[in-house]
Amino acid sequence: MTADEVLTLIREQIPFVGRLDMEMLRFGPDEVELLCRMGDEHARPGGTISGPVMMALGDVVAYACILARNPQAKSSVTVSYNINFFRRPSTDKLHVTGRIHKMGRRMAFLDIMIAGGPSDEPVAQVTCSYAVAEGQG
């Protein structure tokens, strides 16, 4: 699967995510990196990006990591998801980078970093696990 095919699949499966301005910068079995341009519709009062938007981006990158390793695993689903917010992100763009720590036949464990701000410093970290399942999604 290519990066564009993964983004198309995600946009078809989860229409609200399709409204995000996402670009895959890196897509490989060891690392996936996504750039998302933010707008006023992603902000919350106080001039910051809303937590649910950052959570959605983390989950998108996690799913892309799974598909980069196993393109047949389109039916994989999130089992657990934890996010820690470190600081306020910039309101113009976020970089989301994901790596798989361990992936077996049935489970995958991932770490996702969300960065944004003047020096692209980390603003949140996601740890999650996925049930790996082959199928059409």
How would you portray this structure in words?
The protein is α+β, with helices and mostly antiparallel strands. The chain has a single domain, classed as Roll (Thiol Ester Dehydrase, Chain A). Helices cover 22% and strands 41% of the residues. The chain is built from 2 helices and 8 strands. The strands form 2 sheets. Strands 1-2-6-7-8-5 form a 6-stranded antiparallel β-sheet. A two-stranded antiparallel ribbon has the order 3-4. Strand 1 and strand 2 form a beta hairpin. Helix 1 packs across helix 2 (51-69). It is globular, with a radius of gyration of 14 Å. The model has no long low-confidence stretch (mean pLDDT 91).
What is the secondary structure topology, with strand pairs?
Elements (H helix, E strand, L loop, with lengths): L2 H11 L7 E7 L4 E6 L5 E2 L3 E2 L1 H19 L7 E9 L7 E11 L3 E9 L6 E10 L6
Antiparallel strand pairs: 1-2, 2-6, 3-4, 5-8, 6-7, 7-8
